[in-house]
Amino acid sequence: MSARTLPLVFINLGGEMLYILDQRLRALNTSEDQSETGVWSERDRKRVLNDVVGTMFSKSFMDELLKPQQLYSHRTMKTVLTRLAHSSIMRLNPASMDRLYELMIMAFKYQVLLSPRPRDLLLVSYNHLDAARAFVRDTPAVLNQVDETHRKIIEVYSRLSDGEFQLLRQTLLTFLQDVHTRVSVFLKNQIQNPSGRFVLMTSGPVPTRVEVPGLIRTFDSRGREVGRSEFLPGGTYSGSVGEGSFELSGDRVLKLGQNLYQAERPEETQTSRTPGAQPDRTNPLAKEELNLLARLMGCMKAGSVPAAAPRFQISLFPSDPEEDEEGGAPAGQAAIFQVINIQAVQDEEAASALARIAGQFTDEEAELENPRGSKGDDLLAMMDDL
Predict the structure, then answer these.
(1) pTM (2 decimals)?
(2) Does residue 105 register a pLDDT over 70?
(3) Following DSSP, what letter does each residue of 115-162 receive, concatenated?
């Protein structure tokens, strides 16, 4: 397992969160009927994105994240990303966050599967960093945080060999292999089956520095070519489109990691569970997996949000009637499939309850469960000071 996987997972999943929030909040801002969403404005949308990006690329947090360490479980990653979303004025109920997490995971899984080379996973991450930079271009302080993180990513990952990138890719595939959530935009474009599995095409450009398959060359003991034969490769391949820029800026060439929802309708940010899939009902407060829980983001402590802050309720993910039409599930399975519903309301009582429950884990219990200390405790202590 690669010890350098966690930062890329966090950056890419966080980038997908930004895409989804931006698309849904824009849709609400232009909606004629805001009776269910309350007062919402373009200023609120920008505030949410700035808060999320600012927390995501906090210097102390990224420094800790970039240290070599094992990849967290899905439960822990979901907890981390929940705290990230809650660093803004929004609040998501547990069921809503579960579905949002599935949507982010499926987008990232698609990008990992289609990356031409293991090293191109960096280009996918850079596309997400470029997008985060564009979201906060009017906020110099946050923009500088993104640039600084990007420089650190370049410094850390430019030294890795191709073999290390291959190990990193295998770690990601192991992490993502059991997730098969159906997503409307993928079903519509016929790149995902109703089972939730992706359709991988055997055509298109080959990776950089790779020849188009179809030719076998034979060499003698002295390395001289002595014969050629052709074969059918089983697909329609073309030459490489070139190598993208691995620098702070430039043409990435690779489109994976860019905003899938930019030109889509609001209904495209929908997910539904595959038949037989069960919701994750594990306890997110288990001490063994408290990597960044409770006080992960210092600004998320109970009572830290001013009482005068605006209160509003948002339904970001309405039901998706088009899913069955575009290759979705049979009508008999409709009751199984659920959609994401996000309510952005200030919930001080819930935050206080969470802090109280987390506080019930005594030092004695922590020592029994993990005598050497739970991984992530350093991050918890560090983020308390933000």
Answers:
(1) 0.72
(2) yes
(3) -SSGGGHHHHHHHHHHHHHHHTTT-HHHHHHHHHHHHHHHHHHTT--H
| Distance separating alpha carbons of residues 245 and 208, to the nearest angstrom | 12
Query: CA-CA distance, 382 to 300, in Å (whole number)?
Result: 14
Identify the three-state secondary structure at position 162.
Answer: helix
Decide: 28 and 48 in contact? Cβ < 8 Å.
no
Reply yes or no on whether the pLDDT at 295 is more than 70. Answer: no
Q: How far apart are CA 279 and CA 75, in angstroms?
A: 12
Q: What is the Cα gyration radius of the chain? A: 23
pLDDT band for 367, please (50, 70, 90 cuts): very low
pLDDT tens digits, one per residue of 140-158: 999 999 999 999 999 999 9
In the Cβ-directed half-sphere of 252, how many Cα atoms lie within 13 Å?
21
CA distance 229 to 123: 35
Q: Which helix (H) or strand (E) holds 52?
A: helix 42-56
Average pLDDT, integer, range 18-23: 89
Give every CB contact of residue 332 below 8 A, 6+ residues apart in sequence. Answer: none
DSSP 308-350: TS-------S---TTTTTTT---GGGTTT-----------HHH
The C-alpha angle 14, 19, 23, rounded to 5 degrees, equals: 145
Whole-angstrom CA distances from 198 to 3, 49, 111, 124, 358 are 27, 30, 11, 18, 39
C-alpha 377/C-alpha 381 separation (Å) is: 6
Q: What is the pLDDT of residues 323-334, one digit of tens each?
A: 344 444 444 444
DSSP at 119:
G
Query: For residues 242 and 222, what is the distance between their CA atoms, to the nearest angstrom?
Result: 32
Identify the CA nearest to 62 among candidates 168, 158, 150, 160: 150
Token pair 């770690």 in the structure block, residue? 171
Beta bridge partners of 182: 272
Q: Which residues contact 366 (CB under 8 A, 6 or more apart)?
A: 287, 373, 374
Give 177: exposed, middle or buried? Use CB within 10 Å, 0-12, 13-18, 19+. Answer: exposed
Residue 355 to residues 342, 343, 352: CA-CA distances in angstroms?
22, 20, 5
In angstroms, the CA 159 to CA 154 distance is: 9
